Amino acid sequence: MPSTWLDFWQQENEFDNSMSANYAYFLDRVEQYAPLNKTLRVLDIGSGPANLEDAWHDRVGELHGLDISQRYNEIARAKHASHPNVFFHDIPADDYLNFDVVAGKQFDLIIVMSVVQYYRNAGEVEKLLANIKSLAAPGAKALVCDLIVEEGVLGDVLSILGRSLRQGKLLSMLNLLFRLRFSAYYKIRQDNGFLIVPKSEWLAMCKRLNLNARFVDEPITMQQERQNLLIQF
């Protein structure tokens, strides 16, 4: 049984077929902050089973996904084998802030979706922001999404249930939450928790790195209690 978040994402898990609802909600809202066009070069940090690439492969110029899970990358590569503008890169599970595989490239849009809560500390978050800065093209935008900025597991659950109800997907979400409660995910969450970084600390890190950043006003993921950071270069 996996004992850490790194172990969890390397194995088949309950999220393999259940990320689409949150992604659909995000995709309906993200373009008001990051309009797409056919020349856009996009970096997807924590690309998982390629939900973003599934939606955008024919709407942007180039897509690069980074993930620690070779299993997810194999799934993603198989799905997008016929799309020459889509690339998936393995990053080391024990060195997941090492983005050398895309060193020297510049991106117009960088997406980090529901990844940061699995980091170990705020120092790693600041390293992520520095990496984003080094990979951003002039005029680029980055969205770091689904951020936990305060304690509140109950609020997280109630928020996603409410939005699932409005989307007509309440039963499937209840089924997922039930399976998670009796899975390795629940034990790992108890043992390792989620990383919580307050909004003030996010903004302080951005200031130290000279980043033009703000939190967007409306929720753009199903977890209404979570926050989303927009960085403009």
UniProtKB/TrEMBL annotation:
Question: What residues does the Methyltransferase domain cover?
Answer: 42-139
**Which residues are listed as membrane-spanning?**
none
Q: Could you give a single Gene Ontology term from the biological process aspect?
A: methylation
Per the record, the domain of life is Bacteria
Q: Which UniProt keywords apply?
A: Methyltransferase, Transferase
Q: Which Pfam families match?
A: Methyltransf_25
GO terms of molecular function: methyltransferase activity
Full protein name: Methyltransferase domain-containing protein
